[in-house]
Amino acid sequence: MLHTIIKENAYQDSVVLMLLTNKVSTIDGVNRVSIMMGTPANKDIFGTSGLRTEELEAASANDMAIVVDTEDASKIDEILAEVDAFLASQATKESSNTTETARTWDKAMKLDSDANMALISIPGTYAAAEADRALDEGLHAFIFSDNMPIEEELRLKQKAHDKGLLVMGPDCGTGIVNGVPMAFTNVVKPGNIGIVGASGTGIQEVSTIIDRLGGGVTNAIGTGGRDLSETVGGITMLDAIAALEKQADTDVIVVISKPPAKAIRDKVLALLRTITKPAVTIFLGEKPTYHEANLYHAYTLEETARIAIALAKGEAVKAVETQIVKPEIGLTPEQKHIKGYYSGGTLASEAAMLIADALQLKEGLIKQDGYILKTEGHEVIDLGDDIYTQGKPHPMIDPEKRIAFIEDAANDPETAVILLDVVLGYGSHEDMAGQLAPAIKDVIAKAKAAGRELAVIGTVCGTLQDPQDYNEQRQTLETAGVIVKDSNNEAVRTGLALVGRTVEEADKAIREVESGEAAPILEASDAMLDLLAKQPRVINIGLKSFAEAITETGGRVVQFDWRPVAGGNPELQKVLQFLNSYRAETADVK
């Protein structure tokens, strides 16, 4: 039976509500529960999960909506007590935080008139309006929020380009600005390598390998996954490359992207061929066969990091040889399949790419229902896909969905290898290895009892400086029976070796390439160079945990205590957005 509780004017950010949902769901007698703000989009999510009720319709965007499926009505009082206790603990944390807080843009800008970036992590329906205002205030915009129409992304990026500003995102999961982490980010040592990437966990994997190999990063600029689409045209990518070219502390530039539109890829390469600094590219899914003078092309994220390290040290670039030691695991003749369950979308894509290459699969690489690859019994799933995260925590925070997939795969007598990642850093679970370990230990034991050995192979994406203990996370996985490798590339190739497959790669010679694409002429603005040269001063609009990471690493932040305006009505918000833009334009004219 469904029970609905509406807590009026009790706005909380989405991560807090997801953690609260997890906590309430553990109460005995609770079949299902969902706790979200009462926005129209969230009401649709309630409906998709079968939890939409008549009482829910009265909730506004500023009201907290709790829908519980339980046969025991007496549980409601227990649930309310748990909700109140959890929210009280959050309030205590906030009251002990010395970060200055503002409820309006005017107050936020008065608290820090030198702010130069807005970090936006509110529901995507409302993100464009706040990004617009940020640009009008002369701030760069880092948009963690997703579900923004691509037309809005294009408009914002064109506006930013005209103003000499950067829009990072939407759906930009990670970034490093002069050593200060943005959103889900690892703590990476400073160095002389600059990264720009249309890929969150791609940036994380490359930057953490660089760190562990003794190198460091000046800046890592996320662009959002659609930046290299035909529609957007690589606006942020191209501007960021131009800025890193002029940025004094950057000696090497790394470009990372999920599969781009060919025309935009060619435009990016044309620009890279004109810069003075050596560059490394990885366009995930492409298997390059050559390098160019001063421009190197990698196949895997690990190769990207290793080439960047060589260039940063002024060393010659050599072929990267991945030494694979085949584990001593005896598989039955039926065990032939590899299954990967990833919290990182780019890591999942890299795994699918390598498996498809080694098995010479003509079909199987897909992007549907979270699957990156699904063919002939093999599968790789991005558990961070929207289908798995609507109204639920991201798998970097919550292990529940991944554990269910691991258990199902382990019960299949044809499964040989299970691949997984643990991504550390700000925003991620404080002990994800500890959350996964009991289930992994259990499935390995059950397979053994059934007369099978099961290979669980993983990698930890992180650094020794991360909030979690990198070595302890590795040790926890190893104790549970996981074969832990230093990179996703090595983990996948180890799994392939167990099923008798390898990825063939030839050495890449340097050759001249005639580019048919005219290089864009770009100038890095003073505002872009200033952003990359100094620790950022941030207006944080959304998740409070992002503010904590900034202050811990020396950045300055003002917390914008955001609430949906106009009662959450999108049409009224557009009117307000127009009026604000008109006001800004009028002020510029005067």
Folded structure, characterized:
- The protein is of the alpha/beta class.
- It folds into four domains: 2-94, no CATH class; 99-171 and 536-589, Rossmann fold; 174-321 and 505-524, Rossmann fold (3-Layer(aba) Sandwich), CATH 3.40.50.261; 337-499, 3-Layer(aba) Sandwich (Rossmann fold).
- The chain has 19 helices and 25 strands.
- It has a seven-stranded mixed beta sheet, with helices on both faces. Strands 17-18-19-16-20-21-22 form a seven-stranded mixed beta sheet, with helices on both faces. It has a six-stranded parallel beta sheet with strand order 4-25-24-5-6-7, sandwiched between helices.
- The N and C termini lie far apart (61 Å).
Q: What's the pLDDT, averaged over the residues? A: 90
* Spatial sequence of strands, sheet with the most strands: 9-8-11-10-12-13-15
Structural class of the helices, strands and pairings? alpha/beta
Which range best describes the helical content: under 10%, 10-25%, 25-40%, 40-55%, 55-70% or over 70%? 25-40%
| CATH topology annotation of the largest domain | Rossmann fold
* Shape, per Cα inertia axes: globular
The first-level CATH class name of the largest domain: Alpha Beta
- The count of domains is 4
Please give the count of helices.
Answer: 19
Amino-to-carboxy terminus distance: 61 Å
Under the CATH scheme, which architecture of the largest domain would be assigned? 3-Layer(aba) Sandwich
DSSP strand content = 15-25%
* Extended strand count: 25
Radius of gyration: 24 Å
- Poorly predicted regions are none
